[in-house]
Target: 6-phosphogluconolactonase
Amino acid sequence: MSSRTCRKGHGRVHLTWVDERCVPAGSEDSNRGAFLRLGLPPPGAALPLWADDDADPARAVERFEREFMRTFAGALDVALLGLGEDGHVASLFPGHPALQAAGAAVFVADSPKPPARRMSLTLPVLRKTPLAVMMAAGAGKRAALRRVTRREAGLPTTALAYLVIATDIDSEGESDE
Model:
């Protein structure tokens, strides 16, 4: 999930998700659904990448990009990211063609991690975000975290302007799981 404080919005916080699985919000696989099930209604405007009534991914990308430009002026102030075991953030997987997408959002039809159909903010949007905060939780993320801290080529995190890492993995390789 990412937040942007609109400069013209008198301090209002606007939220959008950096990625979403193309499933209804009621699905256990939905990022937005998980947020809503926790009883955390988004403050201000909330812009979902994938809406329950989206059927056509191309139209969903167009809808999102139009609203993203209107609500966020095409940029984020802060991106909150999670690290995948393979080094992905959002739904931007190392070596995947989605890394080359140029717009604000991209449809991923063949995610290497289920579910296969996803939408994601693109690397250009994340690249121009001045601050990214990434959570790497659990021992299963240890190898990926090591790759990120070494700035391994091909990882989406190497393109980020400023990355802060929050983790429960200590320097001796233990985690607080």
Q: What stands out?
A: The mean pLDDT is 87. The helical segments are 31-37, 57-72, 123-127, 142-149. Strands lie at 2-5, 13-16, 19-21, 46-47, 78-82, 105-108, 118-121, 131-136, 163-167. The first helix runs from residue 31 to 37.
